[in-house]
Predict the structure.
Amino acid sequence: MPGRLLAGADSVSLPVGVWLTALGLVAVELAASGRYGFHRDELYFIVAGSHPAFGYVDQPPLAPLIARAATIVLGTTPTAVRIVPALAGAAVVVLAAMTAREIGGGRFAQILSAVAVACAPVVEAAAHLANTTVYDLLAWAAIVLLVLRAINREQPAAWLGAGLAAGLGLENKDLPLLLVLGVTVGLVLTGRWRALLNRWALGGVAIALALWAPNLAWQATHGWPQLAMSRALHAEHSTAGDYSSVLPAELLYLGLASVPLAWLGLRRLWRETELRFLAVAAIVVLAFVAIEVPGRPYYADGLLPVVFAAGAVAVEQRERRLPWLVAPLALAAAMLVLVLPILPLSTLGQMSFMHKLNYDQGETVGWPQLTATVDGVLARLPPRERRSASVFTSNYGEASALVVYGARLGIPAPLSGHNNYWLWGPGSQSDRVVIAVGSAGDLRPFFARCVRSAVFRTPDGVNDDENGTVISTCTGPRAAWPMIWPRLRHYD
């Protein structure tokens, strides 16, 4: 059995089609990278990266530091911060092909794996934005490939590489722990637990823990805020609607045309003794996501490369293979306008349903205009009040936009109680006059007056979380910032 599973694993180079697929993904991502604008997470990561730390309230430090480094080297533009994510997406495509080769796939299986992954909406969307998702997909793909090599090819030193990938992944997001849990359960339930009991596997664990240790230390010294974040995420993304939509959403994320390929892949993983532990791992991961955080179905998509790879190997053994290759390409071309920012804003503004279908598109629209609106409110204040005014926002997106776009306008460094902004504190900001951006409800108990000063409208009426945000002016503080700050914290 191992010989048959690994029949294609000795090939040194991948087919040209794999590299062309990866290059095509990068080209498409970069062509769309300058459309619309920054996503709220990207703005937040740029600001967080300018406050270097071993951790933040809502994630480890890797993604913010990469985003900040990109702006230092290439400038503060959406394209600058999206180059590395696009390359990371291409790396996921290549790893999928390598995984197909690892489990016995020939040239066609390797190319089909690459194409299926590159055309998956979750990969296309993740590779477009400089947040944590694409790096998480990359870490999972690398871990799975290296675990396969360690176990099925009797290359125990690959455990060290898996530990390295896991450690780096944990400096981006805690989700690799879910993969480790799934693989461990899979090996135990399939009777292969002895593969974990060797010095190489323990060495991999040690490497992962060593790389993760700085973030763990930061979490410990700050009261484990990510545990609070986990509770908040569970509460926010575990509604009845989330539970009813988690499986349909998962099918959409992997690409409807590739659903049969994924089914073949899961079936092959289960039927092949050497691969069954990954089928069990997939079940564990899917069950955890569906039960614990159904509003985030893409948390399980790090296993797509191996699932597609297994399906591609099964397809390669069939006579009619070409339709399996054409289907994901055709659907991806048709769906691209829904996944990436290709439509004119005037058209997007007429498609109010897009905010539910692709939440992230709308969240890349309007940040410079919001900043200009806040600047206009500040400009209308009497000179004395304007010199001592501060700005308090309801969320990190608003605050980060005011940092990135507002510094050159003279807007004071914004405050917020949201996530890491609360941890950064109020500093020496004045509390005499506060411009409340979507946050008058939070501040009203602590001020004598909060008066509406403006209402922000997005360009072309694009539907997003900021459209209709009320900007108020609050005066007459009843207590200083240090006194009220503990009551302004909110994590989500």
Remarks:
- The chain has a mean pLDDT of 93.
- The longest helix spans residues 78-102.
